[in-house]
Amino acid sequence: xxxxxxxxxxxxxxxxxxxxxxxxxxxxxxxxxxxxxxxxxxxxxxxxxxxxxxxxxxxxxxxxxxxxxxxxxxxxxxxxxxxxxxxxxxxxxxxxxxxxxxxxxxxxxxxxxxxxxxxxxxxxxxxxxxxxxxxxxxxxxxxxxxxxxxxxxxxxxxxxxxxxxxxxxxxxxxxxxxxxxxxxxxxxxxxxxxxxxxxxxxxxxxxxxxxxxxxxxxxxxxxxxxxxxxxxxxxxxxxxxxxxxxxxxxxxxxxxxxxxxxxxxxxxxxxxxxxxxxxxxxxxxxxxxxxxxxxxxxxxxxxxxxxxxxxxxxxxxxxxxxxxxxxxxxxxxxxxxxxxxxxxxxxxxxxxxxxxxxxxxxxxxxxxxxxxxxxxxxxxxxxxxxx
Length: 387
Known about the structure:
The chain has a single domain (about 30-375), classed as L-amino peptidase D-ALA esterase/amidase, CATH 3.60.70. It is about 25% helix and about 25% strand. It is built from eight helices and 15 strands. The strands form four sheets. Strands 3, 4, 9, 10, 11, 12 and 13 form a seven-stranded mixed β-sheet that branches. A four-stranded mixed β-sheet has the order 1-2-5-6, with helices on one face. β5 (about 115-120), α3 (about 125-135) and β6 (about 150-155) form a beta-alpha-beta unit. The radius of gyration is 20 Å and the shape is globular.
């Protein structure tokens, strides 16, 4: 009863908070609505930053009537990533994208820079700025090669994407602002101009904790959502109930943005479990199942990638002296299943958060509405997802 009362009160404030000159209340996350995704507990922040040492920084770029874009930086640990690389892996759900750095990560199983997310045609400029940032770090004076990891989604519906408005200083600002703690979600950073399921998409995050009996590890996920399909929230057919979903339109209307399934989704998975690149590849692949649960069909034009890394200090790769790399027992294949579940649940919830927190956005001659919270809550109650 208390949960029902709190949820109803929260929805009332969101919908009517702007009345009488009052500032509108913040939009809710999935947990604020009472949505429970999966069986594992959330971390304290329910964010990728629940994984110790992980930091997130964002630059949101809104200029005039046409520019709606940005950069999101995920930093695996506070040290020099080139000198102290983390094990990493990338899983490709559908390869219609411009993810820089894939082949070296696949070959060596290492990530040596922060992971940056941005707009599709800005990838080369963002990667160039990331290289500059890394070369200028103290201790990197003799470095002759950097493998920047930069992912993207296409924000060209709400943003003047051809203008390529992201400058090096925007990238540096995202990197310098990277912090632990709560992560801003919705229409921010690399999610400023994105669209998901015909509604406003953006940046979302979530985390899951394993019980001590299974290692007590944390799995955190951050997503950049810009894809379509038939929105489903915790099993409830929200897209169908709202009357906005892929294949609903007539052939003549099929190109309208609200009916499209194309787009992309970037998923970044962090864990403190001591995993090698092989097991991280498997973990990254499972995160894509969380995306599927939300109603994505990974359409032809959807570039869907999952990047996973381990922050465990004992599995880091030391570039300056390989002898410093501590030999440790990594988790075996038999220990992976609980981590798979954690990645799936956190990815699913992060996608919901990216949409629930996003606000209606107008740009580049178009308007994309925010997911209607009150109506979504009604649908979730009707399908007994919340009470």
